[in-house]
Amino acid sequence: xxxxxxxxxxxxxxxxxxxxxxxxxxxxxxxxxxxxxxxxxxxxxxxxxxxxxxxxxxxxxxxxxxxxxxxxxxxxxxxxxxxxxxxxxxxxxxxxxxxxxxxxxxxxxxxxxxxxxxxxxxxxxxxxxxxxxxxxxxxxxxxxxxxxxxxxxxxxxxxxxxxxxxxxxxxxxxxxxxxxxxxxxxxxxxxxxxxxxxxxxxxxxxxxxxxxxxxxxxxxxxxxxxxxxxxxxxxxxxxxxxxxxxxxxxxxxxxxxxxxxxxxxxxxxxxxxxxxxxxxxxxxxxxxxxxxxxxxxxxxxxxxxxxxxxxxxxxxxxxxxxxxxxxxxxxxxxxxxxxxxxxxxxxxxxxxxxxxxxxxxxxxxxxxxxxxxxxxxxxxxxxxxxxxxxxxxxxxxxxxxxxxxxxxxxxxxxxxxxxxxxxxxxxxxxxxxxxxxxxxxxxxxxxxxxxxxxxxxxxxxxxxxxxxxxxxxxxxxxxxxxxxxxxxxxxxxxxxxxxxxxxxxxxxxxx
Amino acid sequence: xxxxxxxxxxxxxxxxxxxxxxxxxxxxxxxxxxxxxxxxxxxxxxxxxxxxxxxxxxxxxxxxxxxxxxxxxxxxxxxxxxxxxxxxxxxxxxxxxxxxxxxxxxxxxxxxxxxxxxxxxxxxxxxxxxxxxxxxxxxxxxxxxxxxxxxxxxxxxxxxxxxxxxxxxxxxxxxxxxxxxxxxxxxxxxxxxxxxxxxxxxxxxxxxxxxxxxxxxxxxxxxxxxxxxxxxxxxxxxxxxxxxxxxxxxxxxxxxxxxxxxxxxxxxxxxxxxxxxxxxxxxxxxxxxxxxxxxxxxxxxxxxxxxxxxxxxxxxxxxxxxxxxxxxxxxxxxxxxxxxxxxxxxxxxxxxxxxxxxxxxxxxxxxxxxxxxxxxxxxxxxxxxxxxxxxxxxxxxxxxxxxxxxxxxxxxxxxxxxxxxxxxxxxxxxxxxxxxxxxxxxxxxxxxxxxxxxxxxxxxxxxxxxxxxxxxxxxxxxxxxxxxxxxxxxxxxxxxxxxxxxxxxxxxxxxxxxxxxxxxxxxxxxxxxxxxxxxxxxxxxxxxxxxxxxxxxxxxxxxxxxxxxxxxxxxxxxxxxxxxxxxxxxxxxxxxxxxxxxxxxxxxxxxxxxxxxxxxxxxxxxxxxxxxxxxxxxxxxxxxxxxxxxxxxxxxxxxxxxxxxxxxxxxxxxxxxxxxxxxxxxxxxxxxxxxxxxxxxxxxxxxxxxxxxxxxxxxx
Lengths: 511, 716
Prior knowledge:
The complex is a heterodimer of chains A (511) and B (716). Chain A is α/β, with parallel strands linked by helices and 511 residues long. Chain A has three domains: 107 residues, Nucleotidyltransferase, domain 5 (2-Layer Sandwich); 164 residues, Nucleotidyltransferase, domain 5 (2-Layer Sandwich), CATH 3.30.420.150; 193 residues, Orthogonal Bundle (Hypothetical protein af1432). Chain A is built from 22 helices and 14 strands. In chain A, strand 12 and strand 13 form a beta hairpin. In chain A, helix 5 packs across helix 13 and helix 17 crosses helix 21. With 716 residues, chain B is α/β, with parallel strands linked by helices. Chain B contains 20 helices and 27 strands. Classes of the chains: A alpha/beta (511), B alpha/beta (716). At the A-B interface, strand 3, helix 2 and helix 9 of A face helix 15 of B.
């Protein structure tokens, strides 16, 4: 197999970058060129303004130049992404359209979740990752506008939280020239601490975390100045933070010199370092690993994964399930019923494969919905479905995109509420998403009806498609009266969606 | 520790003024013209070089000092002198230099040239009848039509006299009224007018201005010519103040000098028997002070002597031309990229040929696997094969990025011409960076090979100029090391206006990190010395005048670091100051080739480090230019580079040693094996080539034109 040249373009809150990669036959991904240029979109956006035409011109000029460079490398393929900064802009669509008209480059905007997930995927592809999360690890990804923390314990995702703390945002917040630099440092610290402490209080309790996996600009440069631990990849967290502390006392130019940086006037340097130290100290890990990965590495890895140049080494679906579990536990909704429901709905899903025509991904969404379907009761019993919907939409589940979360939340909602016509939800769901919601919700309804009493009264369930009927044969010792009564009421939607009638066949067993 | 407290290494008394040090350098060049062991025409060439050097020195350095005086800028220089004080000293030193220059010319070179059958007449009376007739005919046919005599009177103001041109001033009379007139000696005509000779292989010339003065009556036919005299002026070069002294002060000066006096006359050269009245008119009209008038005992502007150098049939008066040798690693390699893949290659010019560098670009231009060529160009030869190849590459559809430095002094025009040519061919031409001169010499070829993209890099100490590569000693390295390739890519990204890489692998790039890097390296040696370990610095460069670096060297010397410096030109460091620079030795090699490479060696407690690059230890190199210093990593190459330093440190023929008194002397050679480093490198280069390859024929380079840039203070 030959060498594929791939380029990743990324439009971030403070820079636009082009990274050219080679994906070679022996599954290696090598960086060939990395071109970055400052375009400070965040300046307009973080102050709540739309992006002005000067900036649009600037981006287009840069992208045209990138095109030329890509042609120079004869790249086989490229992908262009932009971070939340564009998505959060009021004139996002117009800008994207203008960029495409002028440069021919179509930029995909991704929300925070997908954005972080891209880099995370690449980090997760490293062998060290598996080892670290199998003990306990906090994966922290620092960006210009926000940062994301994911906690792993014994390989399971405990939570993913996304904090509105980013290097560019901090720099912008304190861009007022009248502040003394000592003051700025102190205020930044306080601001960061406020957010970080809440996170810690909620998710740490008495936990200790062994590894901190950190990605973000300049983190690798700091890492390079440090002696490695015995494992040759991590550095001691105490040493890391005391080194950062020493650096913070210096002037920007001195810091740049100490880190051998070429740009000694980057206003993001100090916020980055302060943020890193606060993160390191708050999360109190033993050791720190800086894989030196950025979003572009994520983009190429994702591309290579999709085109089967590389094989996945980490099970991201498992992350989703474990994150959903943690979430469910957090809202005290976890019970044996959940497990039964997941099993039951998966069973129906698989039996219905030919009818619903959905794939692996949707199955994962259904399972996630099953796990989370009851979490709304934590807030309100009466309004549980709506509350669950809101909880899911506001929770970060690593591995799910924003759209994925809308789908999951909607499945949960329509598990109870009658399905709204498409017109009424078209603002949050596209047609394809709406269909997924309808199909999965009707499956979930049927599955849920089978265990209405939450007592798992049945055993050995089998689901078989027979003509226009879905035969669910169950063995049960207890009376299934409640379930049977509910079943007919809940099966209506299933019939509407699939034109297939679910039928329960009960086989009484006596103990 | 106590010592450090008591000695202030930055004290001005420990420093030499850079202009005076430069004048000493010109003296050293002149001393080559007085060296009897050197062939006559070579000696003549050196006189010519000192003359053109001095011209540039005035235009740039003296001019900028004058600016400072006008701006009432009072801050003293590195040696504690104000601009006014410096000008006084320069004036005195220049007069001494000029005197030796002309006595060398008049008393030794001229008679010896005559004895060798080359006569240069500076008076028409010396010509034979036949010669006179021939000269007169030449005047009628060639000279007269291009002359533009100009008289000055009430209705005709004093004309603009152009910088560096030779002119003839005349006092002419009509009806008892004296009128001043001037005529430019046409610069389009050769200064030396050839005359017929009797003997074979004999030459005779008369100076063009003499021929014109002889016929001056014909230019002002209605007047009576009272007296004539050649004169020449030097103006403040039409460039901004030299930024060297002026990083902070530049703005200050600009503010104060709202009305810059462009082209102010800073030197007026006249014949020493010029008529008093004529001189006073010139002084008044050109607004020249007494101290700026130089009375010259001989022909003005000796650069014409370079013309004599190329005379045919006088080979015995010149060194046998040296043929740059092929590089052993590249012999028999038709594909230069394959050769580089086998290992890093060191090039040592002019001992070894520059051809591989030309081939590197030429092969890249036609290689279907090559994606891109990126190169910095500073000074390029007029008919550069490199430019042609780059244009060819662009036409072949490669991505060609060329950084053209338009600010290369006195080369601006030339650069614009071929930069446009490149642009036309489809190259992406970058015209330098705002506020920075790009002085680094780097070429990158990106090649898409079977196993992926591979980058080939050439890094050098000299310009990509195939002509000067035959005269300047420079080093270069070919490598395809991935780390350096990455850095090289980053350099060009940076030069194209993209963000700098977060960090560099190996290259040290000014203006950002170079000074600190050097200071660090020097201080590391100091630490080693303080720890009681052996510590050594050997460095070769063109100029040393950065105060911070010198102070660091003093500190190192005081700590016991042994420091050997090979500084061709300006050296503001003083040797032999008790407790300050006793461990520092400075030597300057002035030879047939212009010493140009920059090599830096640090013993580093046994883990030796060698760097090469484009930067001198001058403020302008460290702060206001894009320079690249690269480490020599391959141990084999490191050894070779170290060898270069060692041989030059052993040189006792062409090396001048700096004394504690600030003068440069040649070593006492009695009882010593003579070492002439340049000669030795020539021999070594010949010896390194396998016998069968010694037949290698290269074009012999004989400068047919005066090479103005040679031996310049500003050579790059």
